[in-house]
Amino acid sequence: MGWWNMSMRQEEDQCWLYPTVVLCVYGFLSMMRPAEPFLVPFLTGPGKNLTVQEVSRDIYPIWAYSNLFLLIPMFLLTDLFRYKPIVVLQAVAYVACWLLFSFGSGVLSMQLSLFTYSVASAGDVGYFSYIYSVVGQEHYQRVTSYARAAVLLGYAAASLLSQLLVSIWRASLFSLNIITITCLCGALLTSLFLPMPQRGVLSRESRGGTVSSRDSSPTDTTLVGFQTWRERFQRTFKGLGRVLRDCKEHYSSVAFLFFCIWFAMGKCGFYQVMGYVQILWKLKQPSGNFTAYNGGVDAAATLSGAAASIAMGHSTLNWSVWGELALGLFSALGTGSLYLMDLTHNIWVCYGCYVLFKSVYMQLITICTFQIAKGLSKEHYALVFGINTFAATALQTLLTAVVLNTRGLQLTVTTQYFIYATYFGVIALIFLVRGVYSVRVSKRSQLGSHEDLTAERQTGTPETSQV
Description:
Order of helices and strands: HHHHHHHHHHHHHHHHH
Radius of gyration: 25 Å
């Protein structure tokens, strides 16, 4: 009997271990894009001959606009097609994107590459949700940390590799694109080995009323397939409606809502800072034969941010009380780093401020993530973070339209970063006020409870006096 239980336990371990390993290998390879830290120098270099104005105003905004309209359809298709096809689609989109970057020419080709990049970005919901459909709930925390660690490690390794190739071996920027395409092809091949989930998170398989394909004749096969897909559509949308009704209760909590607000606003600002920071670095670089250190800075920022996130995860602070105040204080620190990054003329100060800003952001997004996820089921987790991400993308689209594509403004890159710093300053002010209020309310309630307990001990209740 003990041997049987041991064999069953080993079989369960293998069931969750294999898809986790394959997914982590895919996540690592999909982020092994050494060409990304030097994308702006590549596009504005002699090979493409694009201007900084074209890159910042005509090409990069395509990602924000298209990503907004792809998030909701991708979320529904992810559950409908059982996750794996979306992961494969993401890998195909990444390969197509870098093929266009490498061998395309002109603004239109680069805009198409940014559209395929937005398809891949929207497919992140498939990557981070896939593992929940193939492993047991007791493994959720472990596999989630593995999947996120694989992504961070891949991004850091790619950034470090690109810096070594450019600084030491004097590799061309085009060769970085070839390495990127090779790694992405490896990610595409790896995604094909992922096991196919049997059910989605929103939809639930029906227990009865369906026609079995074994009992049907060959002429009924098409009808059975049509009924299966129709029922899958119905289950998905019914499950979505049910989860939406449940999520209304979570958003009715003021504390929960404020963490969601920072999540959306912070992610929006972070995307804007990350998307155009290479253009800012290009303007801050001294004239002459200067070696850019974009890759090394990205690697340092990613590793320091990951360390900061781990530190937040092991902190014993009561984040329900102090979380909003911490968001305000660290947002103020991020605001200062952005102002200094914008106003300085020293590229090394600009690099250092970027590392500080990214580390602070990853700390704060970690606080928001586990405060939001606390108490959510897996169904609510996927939808709540999907709603928050959609809100962040909608804000980013609006900010991009106002700052970059308003014809009358014609803002420079440094002015744009001054606006981004002010944007984070407004966030810091909101959460400092809210945080001080929350702490005072918490202290007042604790003081009131302590006074009631003291009065009760001094006077004693009737039951206590009788005893």
